[in-house]
Design brief:
The protein is built from 37 helices and 29 strands. The chain folds into five domains: about 150 residues, 3-Layer(aba) Sandwich (Rossmann fold), CATH 3.40.50.300; about 90 residues; about 180 residues, P-loop containing nucleotide triphosphate hydrolases (Rossmann fold), CATH 3.40.50.300; about 190 residues, no CATH class; about 300 residues, no CATH class. The chain has an eight-stranded mixed β-sheet, with helices on one face. A six-stranded parallel β-sheet has the order 3-2-6-7-1-8, with helices on both faces. With about 1000 residues, the protein is of the alpha/beta class. Helix content is about 45%, strand content about 15%. The longest helix is centred in the C-terminal third of the chain and has 25 residues. The chain binds iron/sulfur cluster (SF4). Iron/sulfur cluster binds next to helix 29. InterPro entries: P-loop_NTPase, PDDEXK-like_dom_sf, PDDEXK_AddAB-type, Restrct_endonuc-II-like. This is PD-(D/E)XK endonuclease-like domain-containing protein. Pfam families: PDDEXK_1.
Amino acid sequence: MRAQPFIIIPWENDFLAGLARLVLSETDGNPAHACIIVPHSRPRRYFADTLYAMPELPKPFALPQMITVSELFATLRSEIENNPPEQIEMLDRVGLLLRCLENQAQEQREALPLPTGDTNRFFPWGVRLANLLEDFYNQNIEPEDVTYMEGQVVDFAAGLLGSLGRIHREYTEKLDNRSWTTPGYDAFRVLRHIKEQRGTYTADSFACLRGKRIFIAGFYGLTGVEEAIFRHLAEEYEAQVVLHSDARLAESPSRVHWACREHTRWLSRWSVQATCAEEPEARKRETVFHEGFDLHSQLDVLERTLGASDGQPRITDADSLPATIGSAVVLPDTGLLMPVLHHLPRKDVNISMGYPLGRSTLFRLLETVMRLQETASGKGHGASLYHWKEVIGLLRHPYLKMLALGEERPLGVPLHHMEASVRTGRRFTDPRTLHPELDEQSKLPEQDVRALLATVFDLAVTRWEHLHTPQDMADTLADLCTLLLTHGGDLWDRFPIDAESIFRLMHRVIPMLRECSLATQIFPKDVLFTILRETIRQERVPFEADPLTGVQVMGMLETRLLRFDNVHIVDATEDKLPGAPANDPLLPDSLRGMLGLPDSRHRELVSAYNFHRLLQGAEQITIYYQAGVERSGLFEEKRARSRFVEELLWQEEKKRGKLITPGTPPLHAISYPMPAITRLDKPVERTPEIAARLSEYLRRPLSPSALDTYLTCPVRFFHERLCGVGAIDEVNEGDDHAGIGELLHSVLEDFYTPYLKRTVHFDEDDAKRLQDLFSLRLNQSELKDSLPFDSFLMLEAAGRKRLASFIDNQPETHIAALEQRFQAEIAVDGRTRLIAGRMDRVDEREGQTVILDYKTGKVSRPNPGIWEDDTLWSRLRCWQGEDDDTLALLAQKLPSVQLPAYLYIYPRGVRQGAPLPVGDAGWVELRSNGKEVLLLGTSTEDDMRETVINEQIPLLMEFLFRHMETVPSYRPNRGRHCDWCPCANCCSV
Ligand code: SF4
């Protein structure tokens, strides 16, 4: 029997309403006599509501049977075979393929480059191979070996393709022998059975279809099996094919919209005609485009647009069935779900889409736990040590902080303390060895809180150290889920998406791992993690819209067969609509067509049909997309609007006869007013409280570095020294400048100690001794563990070179003191203040004392003419507490007062009195050639030297103390130093 002409419901019309009218007319008003085969399950509920809203259908009524195509295949197979086979999951499929390949490798004389013995390498290939075989089943193709693929794909893939036919046959045989099946194999078996029994089946052979009027409704790009079975149903069961397509398909197929091309081909392959069930509804369609610069800008406009229209369903004049009419926010990428939900103005939102489990917060926890193990290093006391950043990732996970004991959530405080301790610790650490302080406010017994903390680390760290099999992993995951559920409190009621994710993990992933054929096989840990990631990657957390009110949020595929008045398509960019071809190293897209499999061109056609079909039925279309450059790691990726959007714009331009530029309706460019950011200085008024705090602070001796801080910026001095604001302590992952400085100081102290109170002049042997001492101390230091290996090697080489150059530049000298602290008093306006500093080395040379400071950082040289700058010195002398720029002027000319301070302290601080007068002070530049940079130098006349040391430097010290204790307010002093300031956010508004 020939198939009947296809019925077309014009794609401007509501498909489900048209189908409902058709079903009623073909079943004499009793829809229960119909069996409707649809591509997916979402329209079921919409169709029931559509029937209910039909006035001509008497109530109550029985619903028709509406089944998806995959349900149909499974049902038919269970009818055909007495013992329906068990459907297996991906892990079993990969396990089965591994067996097949092991047999193949044994049988073949020439060994294939198959890593069957290396499960780590095989698993990802196994997943791809299982999916490829599934494609062949769905297309009703029994593949042959594909030879000579070397050079087109990698060697292993060429090996697999070279045995493809044999693998397929053996895999199929093994499925049959074990009474196992897959969704694709179900379809394949049903078709094979029907073909074998052709002629013996009658219209009543399948109980599920018996006595029913069959409708094959809303399909577009068919798989090979679907087409063959639908044809059988059309020819033997008089099944009626109903398309939602361009109405011109009935009269002039050559003029149909290009996106309906698959329908034209279908008609031609079956040699049937099409008739239109109803006239296309005339719609006034308005399309608006919003070009944003990122996702946030798109969502902002979406929120405002939905807020303005309120997202209320409207009833059109042309159609009195409201069931599928309303507003839909369509997301081409499921990852957009969370940000979109945060921007919807109304709370009565219905989500119809599968959210990837791999994007859930739960998976983030599992990923952190796996990353901990993958980046673990070294062995400490029999247990692994973990990288500090991964440990912090675990400590900060919201699920752990929210674990409850009774009414309390007691882990927040201890986890916070642990984080602080990890941040200031070493690169690799063990969180289980920390003993954090607990929350003092907590009323819970300490042992209960510590027991909960221990359980958390047992399930998130210890148990993952000892995984061997998928079953071990399933047990650990199950216990972790139990902990989260038992101690989650009301967490799961408040966050339903998280609750769905945990449900999915417990009811799909864990049983899969525990019951698969590889469950007890021992794998290395990284293979187990690959298995878990791959299994989770395939899982979707399903959301069904129920009840069907409010704004519908759905994926592009979920919109099939449905119609909405208002359609909002978010992030309609080329990489999502139609999307880039999947990169499959086993069978690249270019080779798929050669083997009879659908390729990216087919996928693009399907995507185009879904897009245009949705738009044809809508009245108000708003399309949001991102245009511009997005930085993504190493590469810069250009985001371009989808070619489908481009087509719509082109149509609009043709209509207007001119190009549409962004900013011209209907193409809106999203922009925001960008006022210049004005930052006003925020001085700190020296209130009585602050003055009191300063007095207290000045009871202790002030160091030259504190004086430097004040000179550089009084506001920083206030925040850093008086209030204790500082940089966040963190594990140093790069070059540890402070650690290197400390090491060099201690090496030089040790080197010079034998020469204390002696006159020395060093030679090459001394340089070698100093270098060896440095290498020895460096290798014994913590820097060896904390620095990256390459930095460590560089440091050793550079340090040795600079120390040799340092020795080379040292004059003959007498060592008077090493690393000694001196303290002096200073009288300021009737008050006595203290100033103290630790001097790295004090030498005696040519009848004078020279104070030296080792500098591994930058040296701040004073302005050359500062000592002769009479204006400056007279301003310092006359300053009486004015709020002027004297301090800033001084800072400009003398960026550091460290050496002047040493010259002030030393002669006043030596207990027995300085044996020789101080003549100079200088820095030893260890970061370059180790030369001495003296404050005054040999060019300064003796008179001048005396004036500087005995008059100007005491004046300078007095001025600084007077300034900090007298000035009415501390003003920020901006400069390059702000780049390293830990209080950068405290000095402006
Ligand atoms: S950022 Fe600059 S101006 Fe602000 S407190 Fe720090 S050093 Fe002072």
